[in-house]
Design brief:
Layout (H helix, E strand, L loop, with lengths): L4 E7 L4 H18 L6 E7 L11 E2 H9 L10 H9 L11 E2 L3 H12 L3 H14 L7 H9 L5 H9 L4 H13 L7 E4 L3 E4 L4 H21 L3
Parallel strand pairs: 1-2
Antiparallel strand pairs: 1-5, 3-4, 5-6
Helix pairs in contact: 1-9, 4-5, 6-7
Length: 225
């Protein structure tokens, strides 16, 4: 039986390149799946672009103006991001976003989604909620609703988020990220040993994943019986 390839995806739900990268990874895995049978296990890991944002979040316009000056336009999507998002079927609506959230709750929710076996699907839903609908993904009620759309019982997710469950795991992974070389997101950590940084094209992802799978297969063939 083929050894499973684990891909850990370090990401933040308020990172547009992570949304683009998620769609590109989906396409790459679809292409690989047409010619290979190696199982792939995806595991989303937390990263916070804005860890000092208050737990309740901040008004997006105020935050951007404090960071970039009075002329910052919260509704403007940089041309390159807009074009590359469109290539993978994403229409970014920065004009709808009113809050810059602290994403700790969202990352904890993604840990609950592991138990419910819908983590990858929930990651897509959280990206869509923030970037396409302008929802506050730092708000507990919003997170419960988004999770319900991926089959997670609202009472379960609400109780989970009101507790401190998975907070230690999230903080452990946040500390682990720089230790394995993740200094920005997205970052893809393959087979517990190879880091692929940035929102690579699907073609590059296919090449690298195939290369890692070849090494895994060679190692398996060389292993003593």
């Amino acid at each position: 039986m083929s050894e499973s390839l684990q891909i850990e995806i370090f990401s933040d739900v308020v990172c547009p390149w992570c949304f683009i990268g998620k769609r590109r990874l989906d396409h790459a895995l679809l292409e690989i799946g047409r010619v290979r049978t190696t199982p792939v296990h995806l595991r989303w890991r937390p990263y916070q672009l804005y860890p000092r944002i208050p737990a309740e979040g901040m008004d997006r316009r105020d935050y951007l103006q404090r960071r970039y000056g009075a002329d910052a336009d919260p509704g403007r999507v940089p041309a390159r991001i807009r074009e590359e998002a469109a290539e993978v079927g994403i229409k970014l609506r920065f004009d709808l976003i009113r809050r810059t959230p602290n994403t700790l709750l969202a990352h904890r929710l993604l840990e609950l989604a592991v138990q419910c076996q819908v983590q990858h699907e929930l990651a897509e839903a959280l990206f869509n909620a923030y970037f396409c609908q302008g929802l506050d993904v730092g708000n507990l009620d919003v997170l419960v609703e988004v999770a319900a759309g991926r089959g997670i019982d609202p009472a379960q997710s609400r109780a989970f988020l009101r507790s401190n469950e998975a907070e230690e795991e999230v903080r452990t992974q946040l500390e682990r990220a720089p230790d394995i070389g993740v200094s920005g997101v997205p970052g893809y950590y393959l087979a517990n040993g190879f880091l692929l940084p940035g929102a690579q094209t699907s073609d590059v992802m296919v090449q690298i994943i195939n290369r890692v799978m070849d090494k895994m297969q060679a190692r398996q063939q060389d292993a003593p019986e």
